[in-house]
Structures are given as structure tokens and as C-alpha cells.
Amino acid sequence: MDQTIWNFIFIGITFGVYIGIAIWSRAGSTKEYYTASGGVSPFANGMATAADWMSAATFISMAGGIAAAGYGASKFLMGWTGGFVLLTTLMVPYLRKFGKATVPDFIGDRFYSNGARLVAVICAIFICMTYIMGQMRGVGIVFSRLFDIEIWMGVLIGGGIVFFYAGLGGMKGITYTQVAQYCVMVFSYTIPVIFISIIITGNAIPQLGLIGNYIKDGPETSVPLIVKINQISTDLGFSEYTASTSNTLDMFCITAALMIGTAGLPHVIVRFFTVKNVRAVRKSAYWTLGFIAIIYLTAPALGLFARTNFVEEINNKRYAEAPEWFKNWENQGMIAWVDKNKDGVMQYQAGQVFEGKPIYAQEASTDGSPRPVINPLSDSPNEVYYDRDIIVLANPEMAGLPKWVIALVMAGCVAAALSTAAGLLLVLSTSVSHDLMKKILKPDISDKQEIRYARMASFGALVVAAYFGINPPSSFVAKTVAFAFGLAASSFFPTLIMGIFSKKINKQGAIAGMICGIGFTLGYIVYFQFLTQSKDYWFGISPEGIGFLGMFINFAVAFIVSATTPPPPQEVQELVENIRIPQGAGKAINH
Amino acid sequence: MKNNNISKSGYWAESLRLVTQLLLIWFFVSFGCGILFKDYLDQFSLGGAPLGFWMAQQGSIICFVALLVVYSRWMNKLDQKYGFEEEETN
Questions:
Q1: What was the pLDDT predicted at A474?
Q2: SS (H, E, C) chain B
Q3: Is the ipTM of this complex over 0.90?
Q4: Fewer C-beta neighbours within 10 Å, C or N terminus of chain A?
Q5: Which residue among B35, B49, B68 places its CB closest to the CB of A255?
């Protein structure tokens, strides 16, 4: 059967399931729309949170990032899992006990101020907007590959589907769709890697690949895979795969910003509002991380396998004999080859082939000749350009796996992007309908009107997200996402922590802290990302890691301002005492 | 509900102590083993992989999951000790 038919079958079935679930579980009240009425089981919520959590960036880009950067990519692995330890021990049990529908709700009540609520709403919108752009881009890339259309068209299709079930179903619809999406993701991520693992290491458990032996050339030449990859890497002029990064401080800061950001991301926090009580939150938290770990322990193995495969299949091979996938992806604009020394052989080495992304002189070729690139070339002997995202997308083809596996991976990519986009969209829409309209601007609107505002807001948010998905401000999907973490780390995390663990922080402190934290972080990111080409970072901390510093600024400002202004009123101090005791969380309420 | 305030502050103090211990381990396995002492640990090897590298890519994640299971167990026990426990959910 043709690849396209397989793709249609897999994508069609999964979409049918998602839409079916959305219609079956569509929300009738704000309670169902915001928190699924607090009736989701911890196990199901764990799966849903894992799907919500693992974005297109994780699914498509992370393994590619690991393959390219080796040890340097550990910051993503640790950062995007370690944050759940912070989230669980410091944050969600208490917020669940508090029992309101959104994060700005807690901030507004704990800091007894609509001003604080408004700042929180703006932070939430900002974080989710930054994050959702990467998702839309991811959907666009996959659809363009699937149906041979332009990326912008793919972005629009994906946006339409997300709007359909997130806007309709609210949290209830999203939760059960995400459970289905997690299942699709975990199978589509691990199955190809299992096959590859058997070929490369002879072991069917891919997670053990890092400590496995390379046996592809026969058992008598078996060496530890890590030793093999270090050898290959240094032969081609790269640094060792396991080598430390040159800047430990930057590595530390980025890891910290990702972890803290994880714990401050509103779309992850609200997922825990859907379970019954605090005890269920704790249980749900370890299920969540367990489900995430299945994929996160596979990713480094996949990166390692893919790097080995890529070099062996490409380096020093004649272009005329290049595998089919190489030409397919060249036609997609994600691979380019420039025959610098005119020998007809592809040399893959360290260094950039040319500056930036390839600009092709002609449309996709059908006669098997390479697509010429018009970029000015660099001095590096490297001739092969590839977009990191193909490590996952093209991986089954590289390993020569059957066509249905490729279709499965595509379905998984789409599931990853859609599940995260839906979760973010929910936060965006509730921030507007609940926190902005109901709590600040128009307190007397009815339940029905509130949901209508939510649906309108999710449509508006999608339009903006789609625009940026088509014109991304930063090329590498994971990079766009990394900024959202910096912003969350410098705004929500410190403010929520202080709201729970200190009775002394007052509204002036919280507002000033949030504004300074996110202002500083945003300023730093915008300056270095958009306004200047300079890489003259403070202490060498790159924009991805600056949220860690932003967090300290938030803490410091909040403490200083709170010390010089009146303490919070008695009832707020009692509220803080109350949320520290798990008993009696009841169902999450809205009003 | 007698001695309610005393038991509340006792509960809070104990849960803080518990969380602190878990977070120290959290810091040690990730930032410690994976970043700060990575070069030192790399002299040991696990199935051919340098230990520091492996901790950063996989070991720390396994520890995180274990930490959350322990957290849930400990906190449920603490709830029971102070009479704050809630019904089991599945």
C-alpha cells in the first residue's frame, strides 16, 4: 500500500477518536468546562497530564536535539522532568486544596487584589501564547509532510481541529482526548525505537540503549554504543558525544529555568484541579511523571541510535546511491547537500554547510538530482545540512521500517501537538472568560455567557497562534518553547510559592515581584533574540536560562516591597493556614 | 477538633521537613550528579556509558519518579498520623 494511504488511515482513525470523545464529553457548565467537575481518576489524569505536557517540541525536536548535542541536551531531559518534583511537593496539593478553577484565581484571592489577578492573567496569556506558537508550527510541519501541502496550510488545518474539540469540550473533552492521545504518542514514539534498538544493540528495551553494546557489524566487533559514538563523533571533527559543555553555569541556569518553569506553567497546574482531592493529586503526580518517563527515557536512546544511523547511512556515500528518505526530506526542504569538492560523494562533518536555513534554487526535483542551494557557502568541509526535527520524523525510514510505522509516528506527532495546544488554549480562554470578564470586567454575566466568552477567546487566541506558527520568531521549535519556561519561572512560580509558604507577602509585593520578574526576563530575551545579533550574555547565561535569575528578582522585589508595606489582612492569613491542611478540598468550584 | 491549631502547626512543620529532604535528593541527583559533579562521576562507567553522563540523561529521571512515589506514601502516612486523611481514590 502507498504511504499516503497509510497516513490517511492512521490520522483518520485517531481524529475520529478525538472528535468522537469531544462530542461525547462536551461541556455543559463552566464547572465542566474549567475543571471537568473535579471527577477525573488520578490514573487517567496522569495520562492526560503527560500528553498535555509532552508537546510537539518534545516529540519532534527533543531526540533531534539530543542527537546533535549529546550531553548538552541533558538540560531538556532533566529540566522537563525534574520540574514535576517541584510542582508536586511545593505547588499543586495546596492549590488543589484552595479549590478554584484557575491560577490567576488563586493569585487574585491570596493577594486580595484584582490588580494582582490582572497581572497574573497577562502573565498567563503571555506564557501560553509563546508556548502555543511552537505547537502550531509543529502541527504545520507534520501536515505539510503528510499531505504534501505548504506549512501554513497545515497550521490552519491543525488550528481548526484543536478549536473544534478544545473549544467545544472544555477541560472535560480535553482530558479524555488527551488520554487517547497519550496512548497514540507512547506507541508511536517507542515502537520504531524498539525495532531500531534490536538492530543496533540486539536488545528490545530501547531505554537500555545507553548502556548497551553496538552489535550491528556482528557480535565479534561488539563495543559499548557510547564508545562507538564518541569515536564516530571525534572522527568527523565533532566533540565527544558525552563531553561536558563549555559553560557549566549556563547549563545549570537553563536546567533550573526549565524545571522551575515547568512548575509554574498554568496549563500543567490546572490539570491537577480535575482530580477529587489532595490525596488523588499526589497519586496523579507520580502517574504523570511515570508516563512521561517512559518517553523521556526513550528519547536519549533514540538520539543516540539516530546519530549513529545518520552518519553510517550518509557519510561518504555517493549521492546517486543515497537512501530514498534522504531525497524525500530534501524535497521537503529539511535536508540539503552541496557538493563542495565536486566528487559526487556526501561528506558529513562538523561545522555549518552554510549560514541559516537552505534557500533552494528550484522546486522539488523528481529526476533524482540534488536540489541546488543558493546560500553563500562556508569554509567548512561539511556538505550535508539537515533539520534536527527529521531525527524523529525520518527515523523509521532511516531504519528501513515498514510504512505503517511511519504513519504511526506521524499520528503521534499530531497527537503531541494537538494535546498540548488544546491544554494551552483552555488556559488562554479561561483566563479571558473567567478571570478577566467574570472576575474583573463583568461580574454579573451568566454561566452560559461565560462559556461563550471562553469559546470566543479560544478562537481569537488560535488566530494569533496560527499567525506566529506560520511566521515563527525562532526557528528551532524547542527554542520557542524554552522561552515560555523562562517567563513562567520568573512570574508564576515565585509568586505561587510565596503565596503558599509565606503569610507575610502582601499584594504590593506580589504585583511588584511579578512585574519585575517577567519584565526583566522578557526584556533580556527580546533584547538578545530580536534586537541584537550579539551573544554578549551576562555571565554567559543564554536567554533560555535567564528565567532562573528572573525568579530571584521576583522573590527579592516581593520581599522588599512587602516588608515596607502593610501586612495582608487576617482572613488572608487564615486562608493560607487553611490550604496547608489537605483535608476537605471537596470538588473544585468556580465561584 | 481539640488541639486543632497545635496539630495543624505540627503537621505543617513535619511536612516541610519531609519536602526539604526530598528536594535535597532532587537537587543532588540532577544538578549535583548531572551537572556539577558530572566530570568527576564520568570516571566511573555504567555499561560503557560514563556515569555522570548517564545520570544526566536517564538516572536523574528514574530518581524523580521514585521521589514522587515516596512523597505520596509519606504524605499519606502523615495525614493519617494527624487525622487529616481522606478517602482513597482510584
A1: 58
A2: CCCHHHHHHHHHHHHHHHHHHHHHHHHHHHHHHHHHCHHHHCCCEECCEEHHHHHHHHHHHHHHHHHHHHHHHHHHHHHHHCCCCCCCCC
A3: yes
A4: N
A5: B35
pLDDT for A93 equals 92
- E strands along A153-257, which residues? 213-214, 223-224
Residue where the block lists cell 530575551: A525
Q: Give the chain B residue whose CA is nearest to the CA of A225.
A: B48
| Whether A277 and B87 lie within 8 Å, measured CB to CB | yes
> CA torsion angle for A493, A63, A239, A229 (degrees, to 10)?
140
Query: How close B79 gets to chain A, by Cα (Å)?
Result: 8
Q: Render A60-98 in DSSP notation, one character per residue.
A: IIIHHHHHHHGGGGHHHHHHHHHHHHHIIIIIHHHHHHH
How many CB pairs below 8 A link A and B? 156
Contact B65 A293 (CB under 8 A): yes
Using a CB-CB cut-off of 8 Å, the residues of chain B touching A276 are 89
pLDDT (tens digit per residue) in A547-570: 999 999 999 999 999 999 999 999
Which parts of chain A sit beneath pLDDT 70? 1, 27, 364-368, 473-482, 585-591
Q: Which among B19, B65, B71 has the least Cβ separation from residue A290?
A: B65
Question: So where are chain B's domains?
Answer: 16-81
Mutate one of A282, A302, A307, A497 to test the B interface: name it (highest B CB count within 10 A): A282
Amino acid at A563: A
User: How distant is the Cα of B30 from the closest Cα of chain A, in angstroms?
Assistant: 7
Give pLDDT, residue A587.
47
Asked if A153 and A397 touch (Cβ cutoff 8 Å), the reply is no
Residue among A94, A88, A96 at smallest CA distance from A270? A96
Of A86, A248, A297, the CB nearest to B58: A297
pLDDT band at B2 (very low <50, low <70, confident <90, very high): very low
Go through the domains of chain A in sequence order and give each one's CATH number. 3-309+402-579 (1.20.1730.10)
The Cα of A228 is separated from the nearest Cα of chain B by a number of Å equal to 10
Structure confidence by residue, pLDDT tens digits, A223-242: 888 888 888 888 888 888 88
Specify the 3-state DSSP secondary structure of A467.
helix
pLDDT at residue B1, as a whole number? 45
Nearest by CB to residue A286, choosing from B23, B34, B69, is B69
